[in-house]
Amino acid sequence: MADPRIVGYLNRAVAHEMSAVQQYMAQARLTALWGMAELSDSLRREAQEELEHADRLMTRLMHYGLAPPGGQLAPVRLGRSVRQLMEYNRALELDAVRMYEEAMAYCRRTGAREDAALFSALLDEEWEHVREIDAQMNANGSGDSDGRER
Ligand SMILES: [Fe+2]
Ligand SMILES: [Fe+2]
Description:
- Its cofactor is heme b.
- With 150 residues, this protein is an all-alpha fold.
- The chain has one domain (4-68, 77-139): Up-down Bundle (Ferritin), CATH 1.20.1260.10.
- The chain has 4 helices and no strands.
- It has helices spanning 4-33, 37-63, 82-110, 113-139.
- The longest helix has 30 residues, at 4-33.
- The protein is elongated, with a radius of gyration of 16 Å.
- It starts with a helix and ends in an 11-residue tail after the last helix.
- Residues 17, 20, 50, 53, 96, 126 line the site of one fe (ii) ion.
- One fe (ii) ion (FE2) is lined by residues 20, 50, 93, 96, 126, 129.
């Protein structure tokens, strides 16, 4: 039977990933309205990646014979400028990093190798998201040049 604490991590992670999907999709729409097609496309791709993370977590829940909890999603943080939007997204990604670090450490401690492997893979990918955001933020400088206010 599944360790309830691991199920808790999986449930929390699905909720996080679906919240991220919602945030990135909404931001993709917003930045399209700002006329920033390239940024909009990259946010849409990001939403796809987070959806794929949710899918992998759900696969694991199904393995334990459980349905995803379908709990509450976090509120979407849109941002009033590109800079602000990226800061929100960086914070979101760091939340994921902390969550997956904790989940991975617990699974390793208890010998749940397959769950540890999944959390470890997702942890690497969330770090990659943080690095991508950092690169975009550096490329945008202080953010005033295209940090269009609305
Ligand atoms: Fe993710
Ligand atoms: Fe992410």
